[in-house]
Amino acid sequence: MSRLPSVRSLVAALAFGGLGFAIPAVAEEPALEIVGMGSFHVGGRLAEVSGQPPRDIVFTPGAPPARIDPNGLYAVEQMYAQWFKPRTERGRVPILLWHGGGLSGVTYETTPDGREGWVNWFLRRGWTVYNSDAVERGRSGWASPDVWPAPALHLPVGNPFERFRIGQGEGSYSHDPAKRRVLPGNQFPTEAYDQFPRQLSPRWTTTDQPTIAAYIALVDKVCPCVIVFHSQAGQFGFRVAQARPDKVMALVAVEPSSVGDPARVDVLKAVPTLMLYGDFIEQDPRWPTIRRTGIGFAERIRAAGGHADVVDLPAAGIRGNSHMIMMDRNSSEVAQVIQTWLQQKGLWR
Amino acid sequence: MSRLPSVRSLVAALAFGGLGFAIPAVAEEPALEIVGMGSFHVGGRLAEVSGQPPRDIVFTPGAPPARIDPNGLYAVEQMYAQWFKPRTERGRVPILLWHGGGLSGVTYETTPDGREGWVNWFLRRGWTVYNSDAVERGRSGWASPDVWPAPALHLPVGNPFERFRIGQGEGSYSHDPAKRRVLPGNQFPTEAYDQFPRQLSPRWTTTDQPTIAAYIALVDKVCPCVIVFHSQAGQFGFRVAQARPDKVMALVAVEPSSVGDPARVDVLKAVPTLMLYGDFIEQDPRWPTIRRTGIGFAERIRAAGGHADVVDLPAAGIRGNSHMIMMDRNSSEVAQVIQTWLQQKGLWR
């Protein structure tokens, strides 16, 4: 680790628009060797439904009907996590990967164009990885309208294209790939864009509190740890760290779309934080505000005596990143920025 | 493989209520060594929604609202699959694990009481494994009421306890673990029952055809293969094999709750089939009929010149299995029955 520059020189260099260190060229990708793997659900509660009539349901053609009483107790708001353990553990603590809104842990698995995602990337470098599906998404399940009265929001296929800085904003998506207007220089593998919306998960806008509760339960179960969190998980990462600052060794906020409790930033002063932003932000109507909020929160952490590095990737010479940085063609290059920073924090040996 | 008895002696022995061979005592569990891992979505279609007004949605507190036009094209009915590749490949083809109704691929991961599930078990024996979430479940996502008008069915926590031959039928579940009436000798890890309903996934009764279509797309992508399928996936396993008989080297039906097209059993005559049933079936109002349907289908396959072995586990000396055999305390013992049968079919070296 002595070959790496100090954090101070990294931050100083960033102020001049460079990373301040050469990202090591990886001649040979380290081997993927997983020797442990499992999954579990954590958190959640039992919700009671009452006053509904029983129903007879034929579950599969030919099978006799089963009488289902919809009244009773339901398991809701639990969260699914899958973990992988590498043969040679080099991370001092596990890395938790938390995805963004309308998505699931699939975000960090294989990229839409078939390259390995960040789960594999960090496993190859000896980190134990926990990849989870937030409450309501993927394998975490979701509650009935009796329990969650608000309707779920389903995103059309073109929505992430226009909103995640892949295309040139509103109206840039077309069902015809030849007519899509991509932001020039974009690193998203646009030729495989049609694979991406198949990962979309219906979402609610009313489940933030149960999601935070389940993430706290996850942290209580598996940390100390590093949390890498994306987009909507901005508030989840920061608020959960504010609830359990002693269990979070570092936070890596990848384009957080929201932040923690500004009244309690002092709690984060012992939790080093890295915040990353990609390209094309000035060309978008929403992203300058989102980034300003994130940077403002990082400034508050520093003002409270904490440590928060903000890396503007294009200013540091890493250009073309969409909002889905972990899927972009240069996803490994950005992962290396995170890895180098974590090494500098003494979290890898 | 020469140490193993012929299929004929196995089947003959089964007729006498025994397995006909000693299940080898595994002195040391083979190592788990995964050297490749990834995921993808397969199948599905684009569904169009039109005539709905646009909506402004604040996705996360503090973020500016985003205008969402609910009209447009949605990715629906795709299926998620995750794959793992062992260091030393001994299966001649991959194994596909297909879960039952109201569940997801989590079925085959860690058991509710924290033991390794069948994904790991078969990986340890050198099989490449594909574990999928059927259409509508888990990481496959689900469609809006605009696309699927029928409501989803949510199962209360006690439903599988009473319906899956864990408890003594209707009324046997209580929220108080001390008051639950378990079937005596049950192998389900009942002390960890409360973990199981957290895996439940809302389901529809109207998605069989899209599910079959997505499984066919999966088979087209990754087979030749062996398919191990459970419960509701009975019809999926048999019907998909009927659609792609040349791509399916063997079928393992674990308590199938439905079967294939009886008019087309001749298509299955080149696909060896193993069918397994657990314990307590005669004590349940529904299971004798379900099992009769399965055995009848196996008989039709044999009458058509095909090969179908039916193993009644308690008759073969393996007692106490609930419907969730892959989670039961003796799940490895049953996996070994499958493994031995696959070896006899020449599918493992």
TrEMBL record, chains A, B:
Q: Which SUPFAM superfamilies match?
A: alpha/beta-Hydrolases
Is the Metal-binding keyword given for this protein?
no
The answer to whether UniProt assigns keyword Heme to this entry is: no
Q: Which UniProt keywords apply?
A: Signal
Its signal peptide is 1-27
Q: InterPro entries of this UniProt entry?
A: AB_hydrolase_fold, Carboxylesterase_BioH
Entry protein name = Esterase
Q: Which organism is it from?
A: Phreatobacter stygius
Lineage at the top is: Bacteria, Pseudomonadati, Pseudomonadota, Alphaproteobacteria, Hyphomicrobiales
